[in-house]
Amino acid sequence: MELILWRHAEAEDGAPDMQRKLTDKGRLQAMRMGEWLKQRLPKDARILVSPSVRTQQTALALNNSFETLDILAPGASVRTVLEAAGWPEANNTVVIVGHQPTLGEVAAKLMANADDCWSVKKGAIWWFAKRGEGVFAETVLKAALTPHML
Questions:
Q1: Tens-digit pLDDT string for the chain (150 aa)
Q2: Are 9 and 122 in contact (CB under 8 A)?
Q3: 125 forms bridges with which residues in the sheet?
Q4: Three-state DSSP class for 65?
Q5: What pTM did the predictor assign?
Q6: Which domains does the chain have, with CATH numbers?
Q7: Closest Cα partner for 121 from 149, 81, 95?
């Protein structure tokens, strides 16, 4: 299984939080990362997206269909995200488009089995893979990219 955590791109300040839209910079960030991902994602990748406007706009940069899951809204738990993705048993690649601090908490859990929050920059992706089974299973970080790196 492969799991990609994609934090929404830069969004406007304001309220209500769920209605915040991407800024011009955010649209460019989403476009750059979307182009990079499109070249690498398998055709059967599942894309799961928070219902917030900024995550929806970020996901649209892939030009793929995606599923909106209310359970991925701001404040989602690590367990909820991993269960939605089917980690680590799913047989396909799953992209989660979501929020901090949740995505940073998921990254810390996957890489260090830690209850911590790592920084996932706006518009960035962290791409994980699960390799092997049983006692030989390991989590591998395949990529960690910010939009300005592209």
A1: 999 999 999 999 999 999 999 999 999 999 999 999 999 999 999 999 999 999 999 999 998 899 999 999 999 999 999 999 999 999 999 999 999 999 999 999 999 999 999 999 999 999 999 988 877 889 999 999 999 999
A2: yes
A3: 6, 145
A4: coil
A5: 0.96
A6: 2-149 (3.40.50.1240)
A7: 149
